[in-house]
User: Which sequence fits this backbone?
């Protein structure tokens, strides 16, 4: 089975609220905005969908249940970019779960939750880079000594 | 805030079980495989992480809860490719939630759940294509008349 993902679909309680958060609050441009589903391009050949949780369950043939068993992350170029993105999310009405701070893995990150509790990490990771061919280069970096 | 996702992290109950499913069952090559977290490249500049649910909660500063409020999807070139990918997932021990079938949106798709219940859609969507520059072209296609 191919090692790929093309679409991440978030189940939402109220599509109007979620659309307002992403399209207006965060200022994202929809790829396709229909009455019952909204898509955003979030990478090369990659889209994010917003779809009512009940419809998402119906589509799979099994009820979809709320929860927070995953996170979506943006890797940014600097701690300052993390701070700015978090300011924008906060202004859009996001719930800040973790204020931007130095992270155990050696980078700088914070978390917020969207209107449905879906969790986003805003992250500067010095061990993450992307080669010209799109390959992710990921190395475990030594955490700063925060104990001493 | 940028319109991008670089990392999708799935909270898992038992990392060994999940690693076995993705690395051995599905045959995926890890990008980085550490004791406590595993990463796979799943797109251009995009990675999937497997991380214990408790650790994912601790990292965000708030407990992460199980649930199925989202799906990950692969878009494939043909219905036959959907069938083949589902066979591979089934052989890997996935729970098939929806056998591959014609879909309301005009394509052909099925769903399976990984060992933690995370849901994957395998999909052929005639209305989905990716331009040379990576732009997703997504059009609502007319569903086949399955009522008549």
Assistant:
């Amino acid at each position: 089975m191919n090692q790929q993902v093309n679409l991440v679909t978030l189940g939402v309680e109220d599509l109007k609220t979620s659309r307002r958060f992403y399209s207006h609050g965060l200022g994202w441009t929809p790829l396709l905005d229909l009455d019952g589903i909204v898509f955003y391009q979030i990478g090369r050949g990659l889209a994010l969908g917003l779809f009512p949780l009940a419809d998402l369950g119906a589509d799979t043939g099994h009820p979809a249940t709320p929860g927070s068993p995953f996170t979506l992350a943006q890797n940014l170029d600097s701690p300052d970019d993390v701070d700015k993105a978090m300011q924008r999310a906060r202004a859009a009405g996001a719930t800040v779960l973790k204020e931007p701070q130095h992270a155990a893995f050696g980078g700088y990150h914070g978390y917020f939750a969207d209107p449905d509790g879906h969790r986003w990490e805003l992250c500067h990771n010095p061990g993450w880079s992307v080669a010209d061919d799109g390959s992710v280069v990921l190395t475990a970096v030594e955490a700063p000594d925060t104990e001493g």
Summary: The first strand of chain B starts at residue 7 and ends at 12.
